[in-house]
Design brief:
Elements (H helix, E strand, L loop, with lengths): L6 H8 L20 H17 L6 E5 L3 E2 L10 E2 L3 E5 L10 E2 L10 E5 L5 H5 L1 H10 L3 E5 L6 E7 L2 E4 L8 E3 L4 E6 L2 E5 L9 H42 L8
Parallel strand pairs: 2-5, 6-7
Antiparallel strand pairs: 1-4, 2-3, 4-6, 7-8, 8-9, 10-11, 11-12
Length: about 250
């Protein structure tokens, strides 16, 4: 059999230079390992969007590639955190990836990795080292949606130090101005006052429930007033039957 040489192999001998395409790249992160991972990322993203709905100075994304090559090459040095937040930027949702050298050298301020059997060791060791020494990301968290393992670190003097939990087991993120903690087996945000930050759907449900509560309150007040008027009228009738004019008393 005669071997056929591919065009790419032929051209390789003529031109060793690799041409890197310009422009934005689609994120090349692998698929998420389970629906739990996807749900967790969506909850973190949507609830942050809700609590920061009046802000335009940040970018948050899930499972998106971060390119950080010092040579400005998208073919080397890239990572894809499960969830990250960059402050002091724009909310441009058309980004297909985060290219550090095209974003004023900004790296994420907060990163959350969702652990799985295949990534846990990398998240705890290799990625933690990269986020500490290269990204210099101030707040790094990881969370296992199956075992509910949850840890957080903050950058102090160039090294990650564990974040001490409060009485509820929540960890404070100075960058977000929010606590992160476990609620109904999900990693959620809590305000500094301890209130759960809802997703838009939860907020809408809460608003409907509040309106229904207010409607029931008004209806109860109307019924009470009507009952009071009936009792007054009954008392007046008994006075009349007793020969007393209630209008003169």
């Amino acid at each position: 059999m005669t071997a056929t040489q591919s065009p790419s192999a032929t051209n390789l001998g003529q031109n060793h230079e690799i041409i890197y395409p310009s422009g934005e790249f689609w994120s090349d992160e692998p698929p998420l390992e389970s629906n739990l991972h996807l749900t967790q990322i969506i909850v973190l993203l949507k609830s942050l969007e809700w609590v920061w709905q009046d802000r335009e100075d940040y970018f948050a994304a899930g499972n998106l590639t971060i390119y950080y090559s010092p040579n400005q090459k998208k073919s080397e040095f890239f990572r894809g955190p499960d969830f990250f937040v960059v402050l002091g930027t724009t909310r441009n949702q058309n980004r297909r990836s985060w290219v550090v050298w095209e974003e004023e050298g900004k790296y994420p301020n907060v990163i959350v990795e969702i652990l799985s059997e295949s990534t846990a060791q990398t998240d705890r060791e290799e990625k933690k080292e990269i986020y500490q020494d290269t990204f210099r990301t101030p707040d790094y968290f990881w969370f296992d949606p199956y075992t509910l393992e949850f840890k957080g670190f903050t950058l102090i003097s160039g090294s990650y130090q564990p974040i001490e939990p409060n009485e509820q087991g929540w960890l404070w993120s100075e960058q977000l101005g929010l606590y992160l903690g476990i609620y109904e087996e999900k990693l959620r945000y809590f305000s500094s006052e301890g209130e759960l930050v809802p997703t838009p759907e939860e907020a809408a449900t809460g608003e409907r429930q509040q309106k229904e509560y207010e409607r029931q309150e008004k209806e109860y007040e109307r019924q009470q007033k009507e009952l009071a008027l009936q009792e007054i009228e009954q008392l007046k009738q008994r006075l009349r039957e007793a020969g007393v004019n209630p209008e003169e008393t």
